[in-house]
Amino acid sequence: MTDTQNAAALAAQSNDPSFSNIFQELKWRGYVHVSTDETELERALSEDTVTYYCGFDPTASSLHLGHLVQLLVMRRLQLAGHKPLGLVGGATGLIGDPRQTSERVLNPREVVEQWVSSLRAQIERFLSFEGENAARMVNNLDWTGEMSALEFLREIGKNFRVGTMIKKDIVAKRLESEEGISYTEFSYQILQGLDYLELFRRYGCTLQSGGSDQWGNLTSGTDLIRKTEGARVNALGTPLITNADGTKFGKSEGNAIWLDPELCSPYTFYQFWLNQADADVIGRLKIFTFRDREEIETLERAVAERPFAREAQKTLAFDVTALVHGVEETEKAVAASAAVFGGGDLSGLDERTARSVAASMPGSEVSAGVGIIELLVATGLSKSNSEARRTVTEGGAYVNNVKISDLEATFGAEDALAGGVLLVRRGKKNFASATLA
Fold this sequence. Notes:
- This protein is an alpha/beta fold.
- It has helices at 3-12, 22-29, 38-47, 65-79, 109-124, 141-144, 149-156, 162-165, 169-176, 183-186, 188-203, 215-229, 266-274, 278-288, 293-305, 311-325, 327-342, 351-359, 372-378, 385-393; strands spanning 34-35, 51-56, 83-88, 136-139, 205-211, 234-238, 251-252, 255-256, 363-366, 370-371, 397-399, 402-403, 410-411, 421-426, 430-436.
- The protein folds into 3 domains: 3-240, Rossmann fold; 242-342, Tyrosyl-Transfer RNA Synthetase; 345-437, RNA-binding S4 domain (Structural Genomics Hypothetical 15.5 Kd Protein In mrcA-pckA Intergenic Region, Chain A), CATH 3.10.290.10.
- The chain is built from 20 helices and 15 strands.
């Protein structure tokens, strides 16, 4: 997505004017799970101009869907007239917030620096840096890196009580585990509290948002500001999103859905959203799209009355893919999906899309010159050579959506899609892929 296209996309975004204020819209959309003082926060967001922040640690080279929730909270608050600070944790990323199960592996400094740049570029695409409430990017290494250990302990550490710190949910869980928790990860909440204090002092920041699983870290900042500055500030925790069956949202085939197209292609991203269950899709539309209440309620009726049409899923998949990857890449993903599953011409697929389609199916690697019988068996679409022959003679074998009737047909580079991909189908609904070695 070019800068011009991104600017146009940001300009087209808006909050829903049918709500009395932004906090009420945030609640309706499902962004509010816990807050420090809901009444005061709603008043401030309705009557004042609030400077707020959300932090993103570079523990990987890309953001994922959990981060997208936070980016959309930030964008909606900005559209309501408030001032966002996007924090990339150049310092906290060198430590990493405590995980539920075990100690994080500390990444090399040069790797963290690269990831800081990568995440910053991703965050910047979701916020506007123009106008009276222009966004600002900050890096907590700018203030943490300047502090000596003695200064950190004397000025910041003295305000934290160990008894309170060990009661934080994640710390308590780790203390009960066999591995325990190191002092490094134990001190993470102090560093995050320091971030809020510095942003309060430097920019008048009075609101921090984040996932509810980070609530202990969020409130470490509100407590620190109260103790050192005598001021009351707010924190907002979004819910952890789960599927209707209780499983964790945001993974496909056990892998995280990344925002970086090199880690998760637009086609794969689009398919993830297209495959959302009827029970989940309306909630996803509220959180991940800028569709207003009336549009979403219309789609909700469509799910109830015409579930087979999957109107809500198609809307969701297009909107979120366009939000993250742009309209042009989304239209390619839509066209590829229609061609693959609708029996259309696949010759126009680019290599990344072709490989993404192949990766979404059971597959195998084959040699150039492979015959149709071997191909059907190698991909698992037929259990035996005799079954494969029967499939061909009965007219049920397809390669790249072309019916194969010749039992002696072979396939080489000239027959493959970009990237050496062969998409194999038995009947109407059984798909597999093969890649030429």
